[in-house]
Design a protein that fits this description.
By secondary structure, this protein is of the alpha+beta class. It is 45% helix and 20% strand.
């Protein structure tokens, strides 16, 4: 079935805006009756849409395509600032986004002076247990925060905060100071200072952090640097009309 769906989508070439079911069947090599059934299902989920008696590519397909390019856009957008942070702090710099109840790391600039950290590009952690996650949740909607904090909060590191009231108090402080701190909440002996990058509506696009071994970094001193960098990226995001994901 997946191969047939791929063949149908590949039937649209170049400047094609709409094709008949017969043309799609001919180009894909799928019998018309089978092609018609699959096309009907693709219309129902928004991958295709009717254009009179013909069929065109649906908006859902373009929405997914935009989301697929988003990590790449974010990486390019934030890379210069992340490089400056690494050079200034000589520690590892992370870029992460919120997906569901978790943060996903999409770019990491490691420092040779930072002890090995368990984070990896594509890796996921519960948002409530990370600095980047707390920075993102502080500016997320009440609905998202309530949904996450209503679930059982499991300890991930030695000092993971699992009390919803404590986390809500931290979120309020983060909104005021624009900086989130983590101390052994996701990993033993590791900590970070993090800040959210916001769009023009104040919604979180992503978060950046400076991370290192707690014996080698002074988190309060890192706070102003990460906050300044995030605010500069927020201004640039507004100029470029870069918005938070839906």
């Amino acid at each position: 079935m997946i191969q047939r769906v791929s063949a149908i989508m590949s039937a649209f070439r170049g400047l094609d805006r709409a094709l008949s079911v017969s043309e799609i069947g001919r180009r894909s090599g799928i019998p018309k009756a089978s092609a018609s059934r699959i096309i009907t299902e693709l219309i129902e989920v928004g991958f295709l849409e009717r254009n009179g008696v013909k069929v065109g590519l649906g908006m859902r397909l373009f929405e997914l395509g935009e989301r697929a390019t988003r990590p790449s856009d974010l990486k390019k957008f934030t890379l210069p600032s992340m490089a400056e942070l690494r050079n200034a702090t000589r520690q590892t710099v992370h870029l992460a986004v919120l997906q569901g109840h978790e943060v996903v790391y999409i770019q990491i600039l490691r420092s040779s002076l930072t002890p090995p950290l368990p984070s990896r590009v594509g890796g996921r952690l519960p948002a409530y247990a990370t600095g980047v996650g707390k920075a993102l949740l502080a500016f997320s909607s009440d609905e998202i925060v309530d949904e996450i904090l209503s679930q059982p909060l499991k300890a991930i590191g030695p000092r993971t905060i699992t009390n919803p009231d404590t986390l809500r108090a931290q979120f309020a402080e983060i909104r005021e100071n624009r900086v989130a701190f983590e101390r052994e909440e996701s990993t033993a002996k590791a900590g970070c200072a993090a800040a959210a990058i916001l769009d023009y509506d104040g919604k979180p696009i992503a978060a950046i952090s400076v991370s290192g071994h707690l014996d080698h970094i002074d988190l309060p001193r890192l706070g102003p640097a990460i906050a300044t960098s995030a605010m500069a990226l927020t201004r640039e995001a507004a100029r470029l009309n870069f918005t938070a994901a839906d």
